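sorry for the late reply, my laptop died twice this morning and i had to redo everyting from scratch. anyway the thing you sent over, i finally got around to it. pasting the sequence first so we're on the same page, its 462 residues, then the predicted structure underneath. double check i copied it right bc i was rushing
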Amino acid sequence: MGSATTTPVPAAPAPLTPLTSAPLTPTLHLLSRATEAAVYTGDVRRLREAARLADRLGVVPPGTLSGLVAAVDGRYEDARDLLQTAAGRGGPGGDPTVLIHAGIAALLLGDHTRAATATVRAVASARARGTPVTVAQAMEFRAYADFWTGRPRAGEATAADALWQAHATGQDNGACHLQAALAMFAALTADADVCRERAATARSYALAHGLGLPAALARWALAFLDLSSGRYAAAATRLRALAAFGPGHGHRAIRHLATPHYVEAAVRTGDTRVARVAHADYHRWASAVRSPDDLALSARCRALLAPGEEAVDHYRTALDLHAHGTRDFERARTELLFGSALRRLRRRTEARDRLHSALEAFDSFGAPHCAAQARTELRALGTPAAAAPTAPDNPTARLTAQQLLVARMAAEGATNREIAARLALSPRTIDHHLRGVFTRLGIRSRIELVRLLAESGEGGSC
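ok and here's the structure:
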């Protein structure tokens, strides 16, 4: 890679070798790995070096590489076109690395359904070709796709399985990324202890090894935990570093993830100067990629930054756009914020409808902190809110994905230390999880746990 910084780019390069879904040549394989390394570290200089090297060698680099270079340079329309080309290479039976890059590109474009398809195919292709190292990586991005397409429990279970596989195949860097992803899931389900433990583990390793992406994702998880718990000043401080600009201000891939939540936290703390600048850049990206979800979140930001009655039309635009997207959790967040704004404007009937809709969604996602915020708003309207639903016909539905995974392993006879080693958590955290499992299921022993899981059909191998 180092030679690419000093070798001039030819004025008329040789005919380019296309990157298709066929097996990669050694050159393209190494360029793909260089791209992934630069993405994970957040090293913009290395991204550009890899792009120049591909040009010098006369090959078309992975679309994620060219697309990210264009995005970093602020050429958002070029980035969109390059990423769309990469995302279009997610057909069945392709090379798993090409399929992973297709999934990454689709995620960056906000096309979460296409990302889910590409990453599921990448897992299947990697398993069929006997490349377990690639399986864990593909499962990581599948977990992100599951998260954004409204399947947080499936995503968390996928990430936990991928973490075990990453450890089993000696992928310490991959395990770090997955720790950060699991911190994100724990933030959503309000499992504060697990969120902080996983985020601390991920950030400690990431900062020691120069991995910008998992460090930024772990920071976002902690920020979202703060935001959903009402600690707005702390959330704003964390998110400002991720949504701001320049070296040392977070990872490009996380900036657009962080910006809508930063705007919310900034508005709640009354300091919106930097948030307005961050939103302007986010809106330019959303307009370029034309993702309904990103455009909806940009409209939500506009509503939050607008005074009084002016916000209402922006919220309606956001919800119209959400109807064409897949990020149902963010749609519920928009309804919560809209309902709160309507309550303050004394539009009680519509506020009640929006808040009830948000509450129902948060309960279905297993997001208790967000559900608590919706209940607080309903109480401020003088409207009783139903308690969180239970599932008497299937008691295991009361468990988070993490709790269910721990319960299955305990039922198979694993000790707390063995479970902790496999899930990369402390034995104390596993003990906390099991006590929570016993409480939610109304049982007192592992023998009862084995029986209950068998009766509910959850007793399969982990």
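The chain has a mean pLDDT of 84.
thats about all i looked at so far, will dig more tmrw
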